[in-house]
TrEMBL record:
Family statement: Belongs to the homoserine dehydrogenase family.
Positions contributing to L-homoserine binding: 192
Record pathway: Amino-acid biosynthesis; L-threonine biosynthesis; L-threonine from L-aspartate: step 3/5; Amino-acid biosynthesis; L-methionine biosynthesis via de novo pathway; L-homoserine from L-aspartate: step 3/3
Gene3D superfamilies tied to this protein: 3.30.70.260, Dihydrodipicolinate Reductase, domain 2, NAD(P)-binding Rossmann-like Domain
Residues reported in the UniProt entry to bind NADP(+): 10-17
Protein name, per record: Homoserine dehydrogenase
Gene Ontology process terms (BP): methionine biosynthetic process; threonine biosynthetic process
Origin species: Natribacillus halophilus
């Protein structure tokens, strides 16, 4: 095998130009880590041949014809950083059929078609690595498949979307409204002009599907993720949570036990003392529970040209090592468990924060508490504040653990009480106990 490894790049945008930068600037380290193999970019697929680009890539290598990358016998490894789903899928399939190894940063593709592409890579004895597809620069996938390979992962909770974490940080620390936080994120380039995939939680859901596959060998489809975005989050919810000792984060959660697997993305209250509560701005973090190791946390930049390119090039190094050892194959194709059983709502237990507006009248408290008693759920924290110039009071409480189905019933029962004006919001609570700020007595009697 030649010491020159031929690389074909599909895309030369934000991540692609970061890859070129790292290959240029870390050449010595890369040579050492790959056992002196040199990497050679041999073709670069772009859309626009005339566009001015960063980095020193010989313009003669640019092509708009994908076959010139996918069918070139001098290319050993195809790096897909063009994004999108359908074209990227077709190109990767073609490259695999031509026995080329693949590194991709494409979470949309890997969440939707990961199982089939990994199976194809396996059949073709090719590598297909995708570290950059989850949490950008954080080496979370390799940590699951290598660092924690000996353990049994039971739960992963993560902040895996930088846009929403930036917005929630600003809403919490600077009391910005949702719209103000979104505008600021867009001005700074942390949010796209169409932020739907981020704020609706879809981007995070894609990453959690990938994490569940690697952490649990579970085949969870995107539409099986319990999904709630952050568009309905208000400054009031955040402020009430803070008074109870919690910080609101958009959390991706994947958990398994005897009942099955659950994957969700939703705004969740985390105790202020929990490490995830101090993950601010556009940063990402994934908290992993393993049966043997206990709790570990992986933290870092979840996106950006160089952080993401670091993950891509690390995958490239890994593939090159396998090529040189003659052991290349899709070793992280830990074939997803065909029999993945999803937990039912009655088996998904959590604490919940519930905020409501109640009429400040005699007997209101008793009626509210009777809903919890009749549903056999107690609550562990509660605050109440009068609302200015109304007969209403704002009540926020945190329940003890209850099932998701029971929460639905409690919400419906509360909403039907004559003393309850509206159930304003409810959020899952994760991350253990909090140091409770002084608990206020309920004024409703
Ligand atoms: N940006 C991040 O921080 C980040 C983080 C993690 C993962 N990712 C993933 O990495 C991938 C790339 O993201 P990016 O931010 O680098 O995207 P980008 O800046 O938009 O770059 C995309 C590149 O692909 C080329 N391209 C796109 N469609 C093409 C097509 N049909 N034919 C030929 N060339 C095509 C574009 O060519 P032109 O330059 O000629 O337009 C451009 O060079 C995506 O899957 C993304 O989800 C990105």
């Amino acid at each position: 095998m030649s010491d020159k490894i031929g690389i074909g790049l599909l895309g030369l945008g934000t991540v692609g130009s970061g890859i070129i930068h790292i290959l240029e600037h870390h050449k010595k380290e890369l040579m050492a880590k790959t056992g002196a193999a040199d990497v050679d970019i041999r073709r670069v697929l772009v859309r626009d041949l005339e566009k001015q680009r960063d980095g020193h890539v010989n313009r003669d290598l640019y092509t708009t014809r994908a076959e010139e990358v996918l069918e070139d016998p001098n290319i050993d490894l195809v790096v897909e950083v063009m994004g999108g789903v359908e074209e990227a899928r077709q190109y990767i399939e073609k490259a695999l059929k031509n026995r080329k190894h693949i590194v991709t940063a494409n979470k949309d593709l890997m969440a939707l078609h990961g199982d089939e592409l990994l199976a194809l890579a396996d059949r073709q004895n090719c590598e297909l690595l995708y570290e950059a597809s989850v949490a950008g620069g954080i080496p979370i996938l390799r940590s699951l498949t290598e660092g924690l390979a000996s353990d049994r992962i039971t739960k992963m909770i993560g902040i895996v979307n930088g846009t929403t974490n930036y917005m929630l940080t600003k809403m919490t620390q600077e009391e910005l409204s949702y719209d103000e936080a979104l505008q600021q994120a867009q001005e700074l380039g942390f949010a796209e002009s169409d932020p739907t995939a981020d704020v609706e939680g879809l981007d995070a859901a894609r990453k959690m599907v990938i994490l569940a596959r690697l952490g649990f060998y579970a085949s969870v489809q995107l539409d099986e993720v319990h999904l709630k975005g952050m568009t309905a989050v208000t400054a009031e919810d955040i402020a009430f949570g803070q008074q109870l000792g919690y910080t609101l984060k958009l959390i991706g959660l994947a958990e398994r036990n005897e009942e099955g697997v659950e994957v969700s993305v939703e705004p969740v209250f985390i105790p202020d003392s929990h490490p995830l509560a101090s993950v601010h701005d556009e940063y990402n973090a994934v908290y992993v529970y393993g049966e043997a190791v206990g709790e570990t946390m992986f933290y870092g930049p979840g996106a950006g040209s160089l952080p993401t390119a670091t993950a891509v090039v690390s995958d490239v190094v890994s593939v090159i090592r396998q090529i040189r050892l003659g052991t290349a194959k899709a070793e992280v194709n830990l074939s997803a468990d065909e029999e993945t059983v999803l937990k039912k709502d009655e088996d998904i237990y959590a604490k919940y924060f519930i905020r409501l507006h109640a009429h400040d009248v005699a007997g209101a408290f008793k009626k509210i508490t009777s809903v919890f008693t009749s549903n056999k759920v107690s609550f562990e924290k509660l605050i109440q504040l009068p609302l200015d110039s109304t007969d209403l009071a704002e009540v926020a409480m945190v329940t003890h653990e209850t099932s998701r189905s029971s929460l639905e019933k409690i919400s419906d029962d509360l909403a039907s009480l004559d003393v309850v004006e509206t159930v304003k919001s409810r959020y899952r609570v994760e991350g253990g106990e909090v140091d409770v700020p002084e608990q206020r007595d309920l004024a409703l009697v």
